[in-house]
Every structure is written in C-alpha cells, then in structure tokens.
Design the sequence.
C-alpha cells in the first residue's frame, strides 16, 4: 500500500520510509490485518503531517497495539540513555589564576546534578560567617597598622 501511494505521488519518499519502518517495527505477533490497518492509518496521516509527526504516530501505534512491548522498549531506551550519561560523568579541577582558588567543572546526569545543586545551595544558605574582607592586601595592611598604632603598639627600638 505504501509503495502504491508513493507511486501515485500521495506521499513523499521520507514519509514512505517512516511508514515502512513503523509497520516493520511492530512485534511479529501483530497479525496481518492489524498491520494493514496501521499502514492505512499512517498513510492517511502522511497526507497532512510531516515525516517526524508520522514517526511519532508510528510509536503511538506501537503503544496502542502492543503496550507491553512499548514499555519494554521504552525501558531499554531510558536505561541506555542513563548508562550513556553515566559514561560521560566527569570531574575536573582547573587553575583559574586566583591564588588559593580553583575552578571545578562537573558533568553529571541531570538528576544527580540537581541533587548536588540543592546540596550546594543549602550549604551556601546556612553560611553565617561575616562577609570576607575583599579589600586589596595593601589596604588590609594599612588598616592593621593603624589599629596597632591606636592600641599603643610601637616598633621595638632595636629595629
């Protein structure tokens, strides 16, 4: 049927490929009658939808006709994606040119990164230390010198 519709110019070559794959992708226990109905359904929608939409309809047909098989395939697909994300996990420390400081680059699966983000934000929110003195070093030294003079401290005479 798909080949005939393609020959009549009712659908594009890409549509025909998508339909052929969707019908072929159905489990072997789906009977010929259901396969014909599925193919007719996809051909009808191909006249109004782009190939990507028809591909999604093909997956929806699998979900409708064989829900257990669809769930098994979806589980495998998600498991494969999770394992691929695990393989891409990394942690790198980079010098950033600031004394006493480094930059960290972390690659984690989304769920784990969200957990880490929440932990870091909780640590930051619970930090009650006063703000650090961010003045340049020479200004800090000057302040210390003034404080020591006002407290009566003087350089020893032997210096």
Sequence:
């Amino acid at each position: 049927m798909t080949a005939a519709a393609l020959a009549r110019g009712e659908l594009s070559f890409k549509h025909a490929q998508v339909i052929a794959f969707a019908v072929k992708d159905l489990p072997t226990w789906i009977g010929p009658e259901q396969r014909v109905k599925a193919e007719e359904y996809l051909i009808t929608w191909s006249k109004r939808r782009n190939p990507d939409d028809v591909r999604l309809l093909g997956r929806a047909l699998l979900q409708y006709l064989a829900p257990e098989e669809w769930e098994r395939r979806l589980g495998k697909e998600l498991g494969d994606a999770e394992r691929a994300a695990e393989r891409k996990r990394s942690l790198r420390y980079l010098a950033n040119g600031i004394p006493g400081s480094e930059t960290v680059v972390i690659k984690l699966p989304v769920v784990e990164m969200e957990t880490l983000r929440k932990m870091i934000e909780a640590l930051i929110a619970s930090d009650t230390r006063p703000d650090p003195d961010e003045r340049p070093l020479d200004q800090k030294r000057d302040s210390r010198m003034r404080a020591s003079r006002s407290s009566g401290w003087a350089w020893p005479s032997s210096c």
Notes: The two ends are 103 Å apart (CA to CA). DSSP finds seven helices and two strands in the chain. Residues 82-126 form one domain.
